[in-house]
Design brief:
4-stranded antiparallel β-sheet; 308 residues; alpha+beta; Aminopeptidase; binds coenzyme A; 2 domains; 8-stranded mixed β-sheet
């Protein structure tokens, strides 16, 4: 599987984005995306806390013929094989395998598992679309095992969701629903600290950075009890999520109102459909927003021995 001897493997920088994009947009033919979206995935530094992303490229004569992203999170004992592709005329010569071996050669010894693609907080896809069949063959050859699958749903945004009646009902029960604002940061710190953790706090911050903030809250007695977000990443695809309701507040119809607010925002931003990624409770989204299963992804992982 060794690549040709005239192949140079090195770490890429943002200056290499144009060549990597030219390669990726052809190789990743099941996806439509701009260079800005690829930049967000590979170079913009958007990742959950304690996470480092690197991109290795393979070059022949100064020309990029392949790339592979690796994401390391020693604090979680985990790494991710991110996006990767090799140009069609250079396949089956060991380029991807060499990129992989180089990228994961020197991972910190704390890391014991590598997963494919499902990078928390900044993912192109929550797993491998198995129609990328060559990639399936490659990751199996590299020792990864399929352990689960997940889906993205499509949400039709033909018409706005009417939230007023439901909000009146919730208000009568002492629950306020409103858009988050920068002044809510302390409330959000407390809420995520107690309920959903640092990764979703990070995503809530990305949502808050939108104008208007792409974050909706439900509050009781001035404390957050549920949230929903969108446009934390992959904005050009109309990305929804994450969302969460505290266990004690579930079953009161809060989640659907928060979902509707996010989908209304996506519609107002000009999207004809929204993406509900990496789901989860399909029936909830089907019932309240008429969502349909769209992409299916296979999840792969492998363990690695501690580096000596
Ligand atoms: C998947 C991909 C990156 C593989 O690149 P590559 O450089 O051809 O892979 P390698 O030559 O290093 O293959 C290493 C091993 O993987 C397996 N493999 C790779 N491609 C394969 C294929 N088409 N059929 C069967 N096995 C394959 C083989 O075991 C191969 O070893 P071998 O050639 O000695 O038998 C390339 O096909 C590609 O760019 N596909 C489109 C992009 C894509 O699907 N990306 C994944 C989504 S992020």
């Amino acid at each position: 599987m060794a690549a040709q001897t005239n192949t140079l493997i090195r770490i890429a920088t943002r200056d290499n984005l144009a060549e990597i994009y030219a390669l990726a947009r052809t190789a990743l033919h099941l996806d439509t995306f701009t260079a800005e979206l690829l930049d967000e995935k590979l170079f913009a530094g958007w990742c959950c806390p304690d996470t480092e992303s690197r991109v290795h490229v393979a070059e022949i004569g100064g020309h990029t013929i392949g790339f592979l992203q690796s994401v390391l999170r020693p604090a979680a004992a985990k790494a991710w094989l991110g996006l990767f592709a090799v140009s069609a005329e250079h396949r089956r010569r060991g380029v991807a395998a060499t990129l992989y071996q180089t990228a994961f050669l020197d991972v910190p010894r704390e890391i014991s598992e590598i997963e494919v693609l499902a990078i928390p907080g900044n993912y192109f896809a929550p797993g491998l679309d198995p129609r990328y069949t060559e990639a399936h063959c490659l990751v199996e050859r590299l020792g990864f095992e399929r352990f689960n699958d997940c889906v993205n749903l499509t949400a039709p945004l033909d018409s706005r969701f009417e939230t007023a009646d439901e909000e009146t009902r919730l208000a009568a029960a002492g629950i306020e629903v409103r858009r988050a604002a920068p002044k809510d940061r302390d409330l959000l710190d407390r809420f995520f600290d107690e309920q959903f953790g640092a990764d979703w706090r990070y995503e809530a911050e990305l949502a808050l950075d939108n104008n208007p903030p792409a974050l909706h809250l439900a509050l009781r007695d001035g404390q957050v009890i549920a949230f929903s977000a969108h446009s934390t990443q992959n904005r050009e695809w109309g990305f929804f999520g994450p969302m969460g309701t505290t266990p004690a507040a579930r079953g009161h119809g809060i989640g659907r109102v928060l979902l509707w607010h996010c989908l209304n925002d996506l519609r107002d931003a000009g999207h004809r459909t929204g993406v509900i990624p990496w789901v989860g409770p399909i029936a909830f989204y089907q019932q309240w927003a008429n969502c349909r299963v769209d992409r299916v992804f296979w999840r792969y992982r492998r363990t690695i021995e501690p580096q000596s």
